[in-house]
């Protein structure tokens, strides 16, 4: 999980480089299917953006903010072409 500050930047930028995932249970049959990495973005805070000081300050709600999708096929093709580490950018749809 990456926590963002009010400007949308990472709260702890030094932790971003240490975040990774390893999928070990994918067979070659699975890799031929349409697979996607899906990221759900959750907003934690007050219910309304214009709720300045209403209600107790300790009430924070979790609610959906956006979603991003990345095709595994695109990742595998890109990696096999350039044969080096590459960053992928996911567009978050709000």
From TrEMBL:
InterPro entries (UniProt xref): DOCK, DOCK_N
Domain annotation Dedicator of cytokinesis N-terminal: ranges: 1-53
GO BP term, example: small GTPase-mediated signal transduction
One Pfam family cited in the UniProt record for this chain: DOCK_N
CC terms in the record's Gene Ontology section: cytoplasm; plasma membrane
Transmembrane segments: none
One function term, GO molecular function aspect: guanyl-nucleotide exchange factor activity
PANTHER family registered for this protein in UniProt: DEDICATOR OF CYTOKINESIS (PTHR45653), DEDICATOR OF CYTOKINESIS PROTEIN 3 (PTHR45653:SF4)
UniProt protein name: DOCK3 protein
Organism the protein comes from: Regulus satrapa
Organism phylogeny: Eukaryota, Metazoa, Chordata, Craniata, Vertebrata
Gene that produces this protein: Dock3_1
